[in-house]
Amino acid sequence: MSQNQNVRALPLKSLQAFEAVGRCGGVTAAATELNVSPGAISQQIRKIESFLGVTLLERSGRTAELTVWGRLYHREISKGFEQFAIAEQLLERARNENALVLSALSSVVNKWIGRRIFDWQALHPDAHVRVTGRDKEPRMGFDEVDFRVSYGSDVLQHDHYVELFRDWVVPACSPALLEGRALAPAALFHHPLLHVEWERHFTPYPSWAEFAAKVGVQLKETSPGLSFTLSSSAIDAAVNKRGIVLAQMSMIADELEAQTLVVPVDIRIALQESYFLAWDRSALQKPYGREFRDWVIAISRQQALISAPVIL
What is residue 124's DSSP assignment? Predict the structure, then answer.
């Protein structure tokens, strides 16, 4: 048998089991690390011993120690497993260096861009994108972020950016809450109201008081109901039949399509500020960097048309 044929014939699972036994100091510890039974480890050791024609483990009752041949063989194959680990690290480092890292507000990740990113992946299956949700603005060039979807004036912290779209909110609730009935705008206020209260450094989220004023309904200054700091959490509560939410149009597309949410009254209020896309200049030098920026801008232009009310 040639050397190449001999390498191809090596029982790799048996090698892995033997390496773990020598490194962990016993069959039981190796079994725990590899998440298999001690019997499975022993079976793999016998297989490699049969393949090599030597005894690697000296068994005595419930204990087993490496033989002279075993120690010699383990010392050499350990070098190979170390190389496997190094190769994996190099590959992961190379992937990360070429990966496009997109940061966005948590709700934007959960309900908008995190959903649309699969469309990008279908268009560019070779592109590696990592999406991270964080509410604090990253420092471009320092926080390993290439692109950031920012809201409002927060984008001014970055050097390179473009406006994406201004979102609008609309009443949304589970169809079970309506029980098949159409509702007039004033009737919404007879149901539990879900409130969104963003962190203070953002401009205020559209309130039910604003909506009431828009439809000519007298509303108490403080209306009862649950309040959420995350838009996505309020939307999830509405899906779970907890009340009616003023939901961002960009964040309920899937729920409307699946009919887990419906719009009982199509009256919309614009957010006070727009979403923006910021980027680190070096991101455009990465594979697919420019294409990714252009794609985010393109889907945002589409979202702007969907979010805004239809003018008749």
Answer: -
Strand partners of residue 172: 245
Coil, helix or strand for 172?
strand
Query: Taking the model in full, what pTM does it have?
Result: 0.69
Cα separations in angstroms, 118 against 128, 157, 175, 202? 12, 29, 28, 29
Q: Tell me which of 1.10.10.10, 3.30.1780.10, 3.10.20.30, 1.10.760.10 is the CATH number of domain 3-96.
A: 1.10.10.10
State the Cα–Cα distance between residues 134 and 105, nearest whole angstrom.
Answer: 5
Contact 187, 181 (CB under 8 A): no
Averages of pLDDT over each 10 residues, the chain, 312 residues = 54 87 88 89 89 86 83 89 78 68 95 96 94 92 90 95 97 92 89 89 89 87 77 96 96 95 96 96 94 98 94 66
The dihedrals phi and psi of 284, each to the nearest 5 degrees, come to -75, -15
Task: State how far the Cα of 183 lies from the Cα of 185, in Å rounded to an integer.
Answer: 6
Q: Domains of the chain: which residue ranges? A: 3-96, 99-166+274-307, 168-270
Pairwise CA distance, residues 140 & 96, whole Å: 16
Pick the CATH number of 168-270 from 3.90.1800.10, 3.30.70.260, 3.40.190.10, 3.90.1150.10: 3.40.190.10
For tokens 């899906």, name the residue.
239
Q: What is the pLDDT of residue 26?
A: 86
Q: Write the CB contacts of 169 (distance below 8 Å, at least 6 apart in sequence).
A: 205, 206, 246, 247, 248, 249, 268, 269, 271
With H, G, I as helix, E, B as strand and everything else as coil, classify residue 116: helix
Q: Does domain 99-166+274-307 have CATH number 3.40.190.10?
A: yes
Helices (H), the chain: 3-9, 12-24, 27-34, 38-52, 68-98, 106-108, 114-123, 175-178, 208-215, 231-239, 253-258, 289-307
